[in-house]
Design brief:
7% of the residues lie in helices and 49% in strands. The protein is mostly beta strands. Keywords: Nucleus. One of its GO terms (cellular component) is nucleus.
């Protein structure tokens, strides 16, 4: 039966909780913020319409990416699974109406592929991708007005997966741990085989579906038992076969036999063996018979990989530890042991991946072998010989390997990735050269993370710092969601830049960049982004370099430079061709030009008259004929103060009832005003409106000086974006032919002035504390996508001032990063970006300092010259620049002696802030250590004080208190009471020590008295709240103790009633305790009224064990008004060692009740399709199940909701009554209810920016 509903595709496998819900924990939603980046398998495929694609198979996620012409990948959909994936293959149905079967498998007309996979629950399933259906109406909004929204990664916005068949594997008594470990499919889509046990295969025949929406039907199955252990099974490419004229497609297919090759180890004969089975489609599977059986020489080493060849028909290449062997079905049938063998290169390591070239132009089969060292070998195979040549080098540790279906002309495009390295797309040229076209960063393995607030951020946005990688590949990374900026080139030492302009060259692949300094100097550089050459053309073009530049633009094919003295027209070629006109000629000697702007032959200046003191807007026309002859145009406007900027835009940008004509001019003034004027086609200037710029500083409203403004089109309106000197960006709607500006939203972007530059009608760039791309969406919102620089450059401080199509003509953005002029390429889609700093060691722990400017990173297994010695140390890193703030290895400043000794391993780190007296704060970094090897035993507790160096502000001085020894290694630390520190040891002790302070000279030292408590197992994490100690232990998950400071006593309060190995926990303000265990569960506990016991509130099963949990205040996708709490949300961040990050957040009661109803109906509908008993209760919303609902149409929603339609409408009505501007109700009420519910789901899932 065809499945009309998608499978519950969920990476959050929540068990049923039958206890009554507690009112203390309302509305929790669990969602995947960052899926695991580890790619287990890559499978080339085709999309509907014939576009090349690739499936990336991860542990619990399937991703489908389009392969672009430039070798990059675009993610179409992420599909989290309910259970872990064991194996997957692409099921291809190739048409052969005009071609004989087997003539050229790569040239056959393709239908869209279907993905087949086996999962841990012992099922075989088929997924079919469907592109997004065209919507008749635009995406609904619940606010009724445009707003700023922060961009998030939305993986399921470009299509859906439909389940087109689910089948159980095996029968009663089969070992579920063995079923489905491997899967193989016939190249023509007629049969498949799965591994049932070590010596048994289950083969099944497949009936081709009648259309693209029909189910995949398995007609019958046949068990195949072999005399040994199965190593590999593979279907072979059918041989060339010319069918009689008049045969239909089904008859043609039935004439070509299916050959299945199985490589086994014969346990009775103690030698390897190759078997070949044959079956003709159209006949029962019971007619399957053994076609060939050949024992192999005992000296053959372990077979690692097996793949079918394309050009050498009915053959397979088997790769062992030392050689590649070519086996043909015909020779196996005849028992011919003279098969082709070729030795593998020495020193390359074991083969971890294998892929066959998919280009039909090659005469031989090109089989690429990926080695553990990252080296790629190519086997050129034919029927008589096989040669192995070097094909290039990728990152070591890769194992997911595939050749993509994209003909690049000079070689094969391959995908390679692994667990400990980044994944990428590479071009393997025939001459052995390797070019990386695309990279997917990999955070695995993640050891620790911390949450910090950048010191220069006035918005309160927090960010994530992650330590990941092993040995020399250890990294310290900052995670952001945004558009990646890839730097192509950088040049020069550009400090104190006051202005940056750029204009494209008429040639089409060059850009001119004008740079101005405060000391009245201008330079011009020419950058060719094809040859990537940078040239200083200041003198060659005739640029007036001794003057301050006010504006740069174009007048036809000529460049126009506007300085304080006049207008210079440049030919824009390498030989000088200069025409000048001074402002003294235009305005007389009694005035000066303060600001200017040029747009396609139209000049607008802000000129102040010395005698009257008046400042006016004056337009001037630049005719394109008869040289540079500036004509006076009628009209001007008196400004209230000096202009801060001028800009121009052609109208209409967006359709409206009464559109403006001609050109619009916008001016900002020092009196906090925006002035809007219209320049008609006859260059006459007419004033439209003046708007006071007012922003909120969190408590009251204040005037703000505008620094820049652009006009973009949004939902049929012209929208004005204004950047203020206070760090705010304001969004206005232009009303009544531009005579009114309606403020609709404000967002705080930082503390620096906001510079906005536009390059198209719907997009702009914004620079403040960070750089953002602004996109006007069709839904009426304005989306902000942060741009993130790659490693090695600081944040962008200034972007190009070009307004004349630079980005449309060029993929390169000129920008200033630190003191370098960089030429960067802006990414095409929003994704998770990492700004990484290499550590060259294995990072274990990370914490940020109290200022938010530095991070303390614990490193272990540092290489030393002394053999057998383990080194562990701390790096104090400046987050912004990545520079070290202290010596390394860490040593005291006064004595220059090393802090940590050989074989002393750091297990825990904690920053302890204490106030000795009013106004006097001490900050100590507490490090708990233990001895690993050597003669020392036990551990030590260190207290380090870091202060800025007087000689070098970028460095820090290190002082320490005398460390005290402990009986066992210190594995967790926290502060308690006024001057106390609590720590746990591997000896199961919880210890509290108090700091003694000498009030006379502020000398500090620890009391010799120690309060201890013995646990049943060691505590690996400790947190303290109001003198209550929460411990994650190796036996009791969570143990809660109380500390009486007066009585100096620790008492037991309660513990988790179910024994399990606890990894981490987090305590919320309401008393809710979230705890994680080794099995991958996250539990919620609520204490009773008297606090003497705890009650389980909810549980959620994640695909990986959560090793670290912290709460973060992160930006919501809807920014809201600056300073309002709706711009942020509190999220419990949960990280797994495989690089996946999850978030637990609370929703408002109305949204939670609505989504809980929809989720319950969805679970019931899925259970009805599968014939299962529906789950009765869910105490936590399932983020991925809700994600699946977004891709369903109205008819599917009606089927899911069933009898709950009235209840849904009631919940939606309750929500809309809470809105300031409820949407108007017209048309189909049910469809509007479903659209409103989808919007609630979308807001809930895209609420957080990492």
């Amino acid at each position: 039966m065809e499945h009309t509903l998608p499978e519950l595709t969920q990476d959050l496998d929540m068990e049923e909780v039958r206890e009554k819900k507690t009112t203390e924990v309302p509305g929790f939603l669990c969602k995947t913020l960052v899926p695991s980046p580890i790619v287990r398998k890559a499978l080339p495929s085709w999309l509907p319409g014939g576009e090349a694609a690739v499936y990336l198979i991860k542990d619990v996620t399937i991703e489908l990416h389009r392969v672009n012409d430039d070798g990059t990948l675009t993610c179409l959909i992420q599909h989290p699974m309910f259970k872990k994936i064991r194996d997957a293959q692409v099921l291809c149905f190739k048409e052969s109406a005009k071609l004989d079967i087997g003539v050229n498998a790569q040239s056959l007309t393709r239908e869209p592929d279907v993905l087949a996979y086996t999962s841990m629950d012992g099922t075989l399933a088929f997924l079919r991708y469907a592109p997004p259906a065209a919507e008749s109406s635009s995406t609904p909004t619940t606010t009724g007005k445009p707003r700023f929204r922060y961009s998030t990664v939305e993986p399921a916005s470009t299509g859906t997966f439909g389940m087109c068949g689910t089948y159980p594997l095996g029968t009663l008594g089969d070992d579920i741990d063995q079923i489905g470990q491997s899967l193989a499919l016939d190249p023509l889509g007629r049969a498949g085989v799965v591994a049932a046990t070590q010596n048994r295969l289950a083969m099944f025949s497949i009936r081709k579906p009648a259309n693209d929406t029909a189910a995949i039907v398995i007609q019958e199955t046949q068990s195949i038992e072999v005399p040994g252990v199965i190593w590999h099974a593979m279907f072979l490419t059918p041989p060339t076969f010319t069918s009689p004229i008049g045969d239909d497609e089904e008859t043609k297919s039935s004439r070509v036999p299916v050959h299945l090759m199985v490589y086994i180890y014969d346990t009775a004969a103690a030698k390897p063996r190759v078997l070949v089975y044959q079956w003709f489609p159209g006949t029962p599977l019971s007619t399957l018979y053994e076609y060939g059986n050949m024992p192999l020489p005992t000296e053959l080493s372990l077979p690692l990989h097996m793949t079918a060849l394309n050009e050498v028909k009915d053959s397979a290449l088997i790769v062992t530890e030392t050689e590649a062997c070519l086996f043909e079905a015909g020779r196996i049938r005849s028992g011919d042991l003279a098969f082709v063998r070729a030795p593998l290169p020495k020193g390359a390591g074991l083969v971890t991946g294998i892929a066959t070239s998919r280009q039909a132009s090659y005469a031989d089969d090109y089989v690429y072998l990926l080695h553990e060292t990252g080296r790629i070998s190519r086997v050129d195979a034919c029927t008589t010989e096989a040669t192995v040549v070097n094909a290039g080098q990728v990152e070591p540790g890769s194992f997911a390997f595939a050749v993509l279906d994209m003909d690049m002309g000079t070689g094969d495009l391959v995908f390679a990735g692994g667990a400990m390295c980044s994944s990428g797309v590479y071009l393997l040229s025939t001459d052995g050269a390797v070019t990386r076209y695309f990279e997917l960063p990999n955070l695995s393995p993640v050891f620790d993370f911390d949450v910090y607030t950048p010191p220069d951020s006035t918005s309160g946005q927090q960010r994530l710092l992650v330590t990941h990688g092993r040995s020399e590949g250890g990294m310290f990374s900052e995670l952001r969601t945004g558009l990646p900026l890839r730097v192509h080139d950088e040049v020069g030492d550009f400090e104190n830049i006051s202005g940056l302009w750029s204009a494209p060259d008429t040639i089409g692949h060059r850009v001119f960049v004008f740079i101005t300094y405060p000391w009245n100097e201008t330079n011009c550089l020419c950058y060719d982004y094809e040859t990537r050459e940078i040239e200083d053309v200041t003198d060659a073009l005739g640029v007036d370099s001794g003057k301050e530049t006010l504006a740069v633009g174009r007048d036809g094919e000529r460049l126009v430079q506007v300085t304080r003295d006049g207008v210079i027209s440049l030919a824009g070629r390498t030989e000088p061709d200069v025409e000048k006109t001074s402002f003294a000629e235009l305005f007389g000697m009694g005035s000066e030009v303060l600001a200017a702007n040029v747009l396609r032959g139209q000049l607008v200046v802000g000129s102040r008259h010395f005698k009257t003191g008046e400042t006016r807007l004056l337009p001037r026309s630049l005719p394109k004929k008869e040289g540079l002859r500036i004509e006076e145009t009628p009209g001007s406007w008196l400004l209230s103060s000096e202009p801060t900027f001028l800009s121009q835009y052609d109208l209409p940008l967006a359709p409206s009832e009464r559109p403006l004509s001609g050109r619009i001019c916008i001016a900002g003034t020092l009196s906090s005003e925006i002035v809007v004027c219209n320049i008609d086609p006859f260059s006459a200037l007419t004033h439209l409106c003046t708007q006071k710029v007012i922003v909120s500083n969190g408590q009251e409203y204040e005037d703000a000086i505008p620094e820049s403004a652009v006009v973009i089109a949004n939902e049929g309106w012209n929208m004005l974006l204004v950047g203020a000197r206070t760090g705010h960006m304001l969004l206005y709607r232009m009303m009544e032919e531009g005579t009114q500006l309606q403020l609709v939203d404000t967002v705080k972007l930082g503390s620096r002035p906001v510079k906005i530059r536009s390059h198209s009608k719907t997009e702009a760039y914004v620079a403040s504390d960070a750089v953002w791309k602004v996109i006007a969406s069709q839904a009426g919102d304005v989306t902000l996508a942060e741009m993130v620089m790659e490693q090695g450059l600081e944040s962008i401080s200034l972007v190009s001032k070009s307004v004349d199509g630079l980005i449309d003509a060029s993929p390169i953005l000129p920008c200033i990063s630190g003191t370098a002029l960089a030429f960067a390429e802006v990414g095409k889609e929003v994704r998770l970006c990492t700004r990484s700093i290499p550590l060259e060691a294995t990072p274990r722990r990370v914490i940020t300092d109290h200022k938010g400017t530095g991070a303390f990173t614990v490193l272990t297994n540092i290489s030393t010259e002394t053999s057998g010695v383990t080194r562990s140390d701390i790096k104090y890193i400046d987050i912004a620049s990545g520079a070290l703030k202290t010596s390394y290895p860490l040593a005291t400043t006064d004595t220059d002696s090393l802090i940590f000794k050989d074989n002393e391993v750091i297990y825990s780190i904690f920053e302890w802030s204490i106030q000795l007296r009013p106004g006097v704060m001490y900050h100590y970094v507490c490090a708990g250590t233990g001895w690993k090897g050597g003669v020392d035993i036990g551990g030590r507790l260190h207290f380090l004080n870091f202060k800025p160096s007087k000689d070098d502000p970028g460095r820090s001085r290190v002082k320490r208190l005398k460390p005290f020894r402990t009986a066992d290694a210190v594995v967790a630390i926290a502060s308690i009471a006024s001057f106390g520190v609590v720590y746990s040891t591997l000896g199961k002790q919880i210890c509290v020590r108090t700091l003694n302070v000498n009030g006379t000279d502020n000398k500090v030292g620890f009391s010799p008295e120690e309060v201890t408590f013995k646990l049943r197992s060691a505590a690996t994490r400790i947190s303290v709240k109001d003198n209550v100690i929460y411990c994650s232990t190796q036996r009791d998950s969570v143990v809660v103790l109380t500390y009486d400071q007066a009585a100096k006593k620790i008492a037991f309060l309660y513990s988790d009633p179910k024994p399990r190995l606890g990894l981490d926990h987090w305590v919320r303000g309401s008393g809710l305790v979230l705890a994680s265990d080794k099995s991958g569960y996250v539990w919620g506990f609520v204490p009773s009224m008297n606090g003497s016991q705890q009650k389980r509130s909810f549980q959620v099963k994640l695909p990986v064990a959560i090793s670290r949990m912290k709460e973060a205040s992160l930006l919501a996708s809807n920014a809201g008004t600056a300073g309002s709490p709706e711009g942020f949300c509190k999220v419990i961040i949960c990280s797994g060692i495989d690089g996946s990050i999850f978030g637990l957040s609370q929703l408002p009661a109305e949204a939670y009740n609505l989504l809980h109803l929809v989720q319950k109906q969805y679970f019931q509908a899925i259970a009805a399709v599968r014939g299962e008993t529906p789950w009765e209760q869910r105490e936590i919303l399932n983020g991925t199940a809700l994600q699946a609902l977004l891709g369903m149409n109205t008819e599917q929603w009606k089927k899911i909701l069933g009898t709950a339609l009235e209840e849904l409408s009631r919940f939606v009505t309750v929500m809309e009554t809470r809105l300031e501007e409820p949407p108007a109700r017209t048309g189909d009420v049910l469809e509007q209810d479903i659209d409103a519910t989808k919007m609630v789901i979308r807001n809930a899932l895209s609420e957080v920016i990492v």
